[in-house]
Write a structure and sequence with these properties.
Layout (H helix, E strand, L loop, with lengths): L7 H8 L1 H8 L2 H7 L5 H28 L3 H29 L3 H6 L4 H16 L2 H25 L8 H7 L2 H19 L3 H26 L7
Length: 226
């Protein structure tokens, strides 16, 4: 590929800018920023996010196994660990506040949106080449980082009950992980054919759509209809 080709991440974000704006302005996120999000909606979200992260970590581990260099193995193995260890600590803080123990958590089924998203990630991780796997995984990093920064910059509610969530995803440590994922994805994409880059764009867009569905489903307290 020519060195003057637009980085994959810049083109992917341009193509999906409207979709990101739809995510940023979802009632779930605007109400969370204002500290006005109903507890049952956040509780639905945090439980489903706990289920999601277990499978996201599996997909990250597969990305590590498919990595094209040692740095990628380290990067995504570490990300898989942090998805379980670091973010679980955040979840368990809220689980304790809501009176949800491990047994109760495990008894709650994945919502349709969560099931769809995790199934997409795992199927992509197992069946697709490394560049496409990276593109599917990137929106979870990137969207959370952007939403977290936006809420952190604009949240003015004192004693926001969701401040720990805001601080986690709007913080510098998470942003470093976002930047790393973007950089690796761009490096890998730069050496790929146009056909592979287009497959990456399709995977990125589908993950962005599923990000919207995941947050929207929490606000609607989504459950299986039958």
């Amino acid at each position: 590929m020519s060195s003057n080709v637009t980085p994959f991440s810049a083109e992917a974000w341009r193509r999906n800018a409207d979709l990101y704006e739809a995510i940023r302005t979802l009632p779930f996120n605007t109400e969370l920023a204002a500290g006005a999000l109903r507890q049952d909606r956040f509780q639905h979200y945090i439980v489903q996010d706990g289920h999601y992260l277990a499978d996201y970590a599996r997909a990250l581990a597969i990305a590590a196994a498919k990595a094209d260099d040692a740095n990628g193995i380290i990067q995504f193995s570490k990300a898989a660990t942090e998805a379980i260890v670091v973010e679980r600590a955040l979840h368990e803080t809220y689980f304790a506040r809501f009176g949800i123990d491990r047994q109760a958590f495990e008894a709650i089924a994945l919502s349709p949106a969560c099931h769809h998203y995790t199934a997409f990630l795992l199927a992509t991780a197992y069946a697709q080449p490394y560049p496409v796997v990276l593109a599917a995984l990137l929106p979870c990093f990137w969207v959370y980082g952007e939403v977290g920064k936006d809420i952190l910059a604009n949240a003015t509610t004192p004693d926001n009950p969701y401040q720990a969530w805001i601080d986690t995803y709007g913080g510098e440590d998470f942003q470093a992980a976002v930047d790393g994922a973007i950089a690796t994805t761009d490096r890998v994409a730069a050496g790929e054919t146009l056909a592979t880059r287009e497959a990456m764009h399709l995977a990125f867009q589908r993950a962005m759509q599923l990000e919207w569905m995941f947050w929207d489903s929490a606000h609607r307290l989504e459950a299986w209809p039958v």
